[in-house]
Amino acid sequence: MSGDTKAQIDALLSGVRRDIDISTKQRIYCNRNLRMDGIELIGWDMDYTLALYNQERLEKLSIDLTLQKLVANHGYPAEIMKLSFPSNLAIRGIVLDCPSGNVFKMDHHGYVGRVFHGTRELSKEERAEQYRTDSRIRLSSDRYRWIDTLFGLPDAVMYMTMVDWIDGHEQEPDYQKLFVDIRKSIDEAHRDDTLKTAIKADMPGYVVKDPGLAEMLHKFRSSGKKQFLLTNSYYPYTQAVMEYLLDGERQAYPSWQNYFDYIIVGGTKPGFFNDQNPFFEVDVKTGVASDKPATELHGDRVYQGGNIHTFEEFTQVSGERVLYVGDHIYGDMIRLKKSRGWRTAMVLQELALENDCSERYAQEIRDLEVLDRRRRNLQSEIDYEALMLKQIQRLLDNCEEALKPRLVAAKKQSRTTLDSLRTRSKAMHDEVTSLERSIERSYNPHWGAMFREGAATSRFGQQVSDYADLYTSRASNFLSYSPLRYFRAPRKAMPHEM
C-alpha cells in the first residue's frame, strides 16, 4: 500500500467513533438498514438541511412581515402589530382545523390527543364532542393545514394568537378567512422577496454557520461519492446562502459550487418527484433561467426545475444507490418514497433540543415506565377482585340459607379489598398523570414531545419512522461516521414481545 493511499484511508476514517462515543446531539438514528458503501450519489436540500436557521429570529421576522401585509393589503387594524406571538405555541406535527379556530395534535392511529381553540386548551369533554366522531379525520381535506416543516410554524403561531384576538373583536368570527389571510400574507412576503432580502442583509443573524459542514461534504467527495444540491430556492438566494456557508472554508474548494457534481435550484418539490418539468440552465450572472430545455447536466453549471426521471437518465444513477437528505416530511420524504426507490435521510433541527430534554429527564422517564407497569399490574388485581365479587354475589343469590353468613362475610372482605385497590389505583393514576405532564411540559408547554402524543407515537413521529431511513439534528453529524458506514436499525419489539 502506497503512502498516499494509506493517507487517504486514514483521512476517511479519522474522527470515526463508536456509537457510544457520539453524543446524542451528533448521532444519526436509523429506521431502516442502510449501507453507505452502496450509495453512489448523495443529494442535499438547502433550507433547514445544509442551511440551518436561527428559528426564533426567523419566526419573528416572518411574523412581523406578515402583520405588515395583513394591515396594508387585507384591511386588518394596526393594533394587531402589538400582539404577542410566543414561539413555543407551535411545533412540527400539529394540525390547524381552519374553519373551527382549533389546532390539534394526533397520534399515529389518528386519535386526537389534545386540542387548543386559539391558546385555550379544550377540555376532555369538548375534545370528545368535536373529534370523537364516526368520520375519520382526513388531513388531505382543505379544512386542515398540516404543519410539517419549520417554515410552517409562523402560520400556526399567528393563527392561534389571532383566533384569540378575533374572538374578542367579532361576534361571528370567520376562522377560515383568518387563516387564508395569514397564508396569503406570508406568501406575499416570500413572493416579493421581502423575507429573503432581509435574511440576505443579515446572514449571520439568521443563518447558522455550521463549522463541520464543509468538512463533511469534503469527506463524502473524498470517499468517491458524487453529490448534488436540489433546492426549491432560486439561484440568487441559493448563491447568497451557500456562499456564506461554504466559500473560503477549504482551500481545495474555491467556490461552494465545487462541492457538488450537480446543482438544481427552483426544484418545486414535491413536483420534482411527481411531474415531468424539464431542466433549464441558469445564467449565474443574471440568475435568469434559459427558455430552452437542457439536454444534459454539466457539473460546472446550474440548472432550474427538472424532474427525477430525467435526472436519473442524465446521471445514470437511480434507486437505492441514491441518498437524498432533506427536512420536509411531505415534500422531501413521502413523495420521494412513493415515486422512486431513493434512500432518505431527514434533518430535524429540533431533535437536538428534544434529546437534551430526554437526557435531563431520563430518571423521571424511567420512573414513569415503572409506575406505568405497576398501574397495569394493579388494574389486573382490580379486575380479578371485581370478578370475585360478582361470583360471590352469584353464589349468594342461589345458595342455601346456612351458607349465607359465610358468603356475606366474604363479600364484605372482597368489597373492602376492591375499594382499597381502587383508591390505590386512583392515587397512582394521579401520580402518573402529574409526572407525564411535568415531562411533557419540559419539551413544550402546550404540545409535549414532537415524536410522541401521550403514550403513543405521534403522527409526525410515525411518518418519520415510515419514510426517513435515517434522521438526525444536522447534516454535519455525518462527519462522526465513516462514509462507508453500515447503519443498522434497532430491533423493534411488538407489545407481545415486551
How does this structure look, described?
The protein has 498 residues and is α/β, with parallel strands linked by helices. The protein is built from 16 helices and 21 strands. The protein has a 10-stranded mixed beta sheet with strand order 1-20-17-16-3-11-12-15-13-14, with helices on both faces. Helix 2 (55-74) crosses helix 4, helix 2 packs across helix 5 and helix 4 (153-167) crosses helix 5 (175-191). The longest helix has 40 residues, at 404-443. It is globular, with a radius of gyration of 28 Å. The model has no long low-confidence stretch (mean pLDDT 91).
Summary?
This protein is α/β, with parallel strands linked by helices and 498 residues long. The chain is 45% helix and 15% strand.
What can be said about the biggest beta sheet? 10 strands, mixed
SSE class: alpha/beta
Distance between the termini: 50 Å
Helical run tally: 16
- Pick out the low-confidence regions: none
According to DSSP, the number of beta strands is 21
- Name the overall outline: globular
Strand residue content: 15-25%
Determine the mean pLDDT: 91
Identify the strand order in the major beta sheet: 1-20-17-16-3-11-12-15-13-14
Please give the share of residues in helix. 40-55%
List the topology elements.
Elements: H1 3-13, E1 28-30, E2 34-35, E3 41-44, E4 52-53, H2 55-74, E5 94-97, E6 102-106, E7 112-117, E8 120-121, H3 124-131, E9 144-146, H4 153-167, H5 175-191, H6 194-201, H7 203-206, E10 207-208, H8 213-222, E11 226-230, H9 235-246, E12 262-265, H10 271-274, E13 279-283, E14 288-293, E15 302-305, H11 308-315, E16 322-326, H12 329-339, E17 343-347, H13 351-360, H14 362-398, H15 404-443, E18 452-453, E19 456-457, H16 459-467, E20 470-472, E21 486-487
Parallel strand pairs: 3-11, 3-16, 11-12, 12-15, 16-17, 17-20
Antiparallel strand pairs: 1-20, 2-21, 4-10, 5-6, 5-9, 6-7, 7-8, 13-14, 13-15, 18-19
Helix pairs in contact: 2-4, 2-5, 2-6, 4-5, 12-16, 14-15
